[in-house]
Amino acid sequence: MGADTQPGTRSFAALEGERYINLTTFRRDGTGVATPVWFVEHHGGLALYTAATAGKVKRLRHTAHVTLAPCTVRGAVTGPTLVGNARLLEDAAEIVAIRAALLKKYGFQRRALLAIETISGIFSRRARLAQDAYITITPLGF
């Protein structure tokens, strides 16, 4: 599959069954920064989490436009590039639902990551201070 951008795409159906997406957020100068991330389907769009101090959160605060594509764990794109609008979540009920969906989808991997984050938080002041940020992405045009 190619990495053709489909600006009119109103669905993330191309991502069904995928484990990783390559999420691209944009700097103020328009430069894209891509990161492979875990995601789950959420209310017709997608949801993911990251550290609240991550660069992607800072970039999303000034522009909601994102692109995403299915990818490998290392970020190699394996399908079409789609476009969407992202927003940071603050609703506790939605966050709880997303956490549960991530745990269901990623199982052992998610539990292992949570354990590592807990252990590293004991030894790292920065890790203790960082909180998760939850992000939802809707297809462009919704």
CA-based shape: globular
User: What's the total helix number?
Assistant: 3
Number of extended strands: 8
CATH architecture: Roll
Helical content class: 25-40%
Could you characterize what this model shows?
32% of the residues lie in helices and 32% in strands. The chain is α+β, with helices and mostly antiparallel strands and 142 residues long. It has a single domain (5-139), classed as Electron Transport, Fmn-binding Protein, Chain A (Pnp Oxidase, Chain A, Roll). Strands 1, 2, 3, 4, 5, 6, 7 and 8 form an eight-stranded mixed β-sheet that branches. The longest helix has 32 residues, at 92-123. The protein is globular and about 35 Å long.
Layout of strands and helices, then pairs:
Layout (H helix, E strand, L loop, with lengths): L4 E2 L14 E6 L5 E6 L2 E3 L2 E7 L3 H8 L2 E6 L10 E8 L3 H32 L1 H5 L2 E8 L3
Parallel strand pairs: 1-7
Antiparallel strand pairs: 2-3, 2-6, 4-5, 5-8, 6-7, 7-8
Short structural description:
With 142 residues, the chain is of the alpha+beta class.
Key terms:
8 strands, disordered N terminus, alpha+beta, 8-stranded mixed β-sheet, 3 helices, globular, about 140 residues, single chain, Pnp Oxidase, Chain A, about 30% helix
